[in-house]
Write a structure and sequence with these properties.
The chain is mainly α. 45% of the residues lie in helices and 2% in strands. Helix 9 packs antiparallel against helix 10 (223-231) and helix 10 (223-231) packs across helix 12. Mean pLDDT is 86; it is low at 1-33.
Length: 297
């Protein structure tokens, strides 16, 4: 590992102690327990609205095809550091997702919430549980000074028309140069019909990064799990049914798995926080099975 990798690992190692309880909820943020399903993903109002809107404005201004290709080249080689998957999960203690209107606590809690929700519903599907735990690990890019608008939030294809189902579509894309580029602002843009999502450039973020980390390290999670990781933030597709014209047969076959995962990713966000120290031994065994040892990030 080069000197940069050692420095980055040292930076992350300082976050492994566990979350500061004072960070879990900020007193000025109104918290409502037992939210109804229709109250999640409120992008019209709420105590976190300004933060969320600002993050998406930056994202939708700067996420161009050229930018995405640049980030793919920068991150795909997994040269930033080496660490275990559990250390990566626990490093999320220092990440609060600035695009999320539903939570204002460290992402490590959400990791265990999602995993435990899946474990309760699918006690015999260990790889699914593990996907719940690790699905947001790509957000560690924020700890290497990547701006949150290039890490978090809903994803969408670049290189073609931005569809209306994208969050804040009518408010935040005015300054994106691709929005006015005739090569990119048509329905298909640079793509062919039914080309398959594997051939589509998605806005850069934690989904695509972790997917590439998993592939680079030859982790053995099945393809359904990799789709959950890669496309769980692609709400215009799995929730709103957009971009189906870019999908091939495999994408459509995998869509129900991504939709099933989304139930747990979204609806396990509650004020009842898990105890990571109690749960870590169980999930460490799953990590040892599917993505063991020291991984390259």
């Amino acid at each position: 590992m080069d000197g940069r990798g050692l420095r980055n690992f040292s930076k992350l190692s300082n976050t492994m102690v566990g979350p500061d309880p004072s960070l879990v909820y900020r007193p000025e943020i109104a918290v409502k327990e037992n939210k109804k399903k229709e109250e999640y993903r409120n992008y019209e109002s709420g105590s976190l609205f300004d933060r969320v809107h600002h993050t998406y404005k930056l994202m939708h201004t700067n996420q161009t095809l050229e930018f995405v290709k640049q980030k793919q080249a920068e991150w795909a080689g997994c040269t930033h550091t080496q660490m275990s998957m559990m250390d990566a999960v626990m490093s999320l203690d220092k990440v609060v997702d600035e695009s999320d209107p539903d939570v204002d606590f460290p992402n490590s809690f959400h990791a265990f919430q999602t995993a435990e929700g899946i474990r309760q519903a699918y006690p015999d599907n260990d790889w699914f549980q593990l996907v719940g735990l690790i699905h947001d690990v790509g957000k560690i890019m924020a700890l290497w000074d990547e701006p949150q608008w290039a890490v978090v939030g809903d994803t969408f294809p670049v290189g073609c028309q931005f569809q209306d189902s994208i969050v804040f579509r009518d408010q935040t894309f005015q300054d994106n140069p691709d929005n006015n580029n005739p090569n990119y602002n048509t329905k298909y843009g640079i793509y062919e019909p039914k080309c398959g999502l594997d051939n589509v450039h998605m806005s850069w973020g934690h989904d695509e990064y972790l997917y590439r980390v998993m592939k680079f390290n030859n982790c053995s999670i099945p393809e359904e799990g990799l789709y959950m990781i890669r496309f769980h933030s692609f709400y215009p597709w799995h929730t709103h049914g957009d971009y189906m014209y870019l999908c091939d047969e495999k994408d459509l076959r995998m869509l129900p798995s991504v939709q099933e995962f989304n139930k747990f990713d979204l609806y396990t966000k509650t004020t009842e926080l898990p105890d990571p120290d109690r749960l870590k031994p169980y999930y460490q065994a799953l990590i040892d099975k599917y993505c063991p040892g020291i991984l390259k990030f």
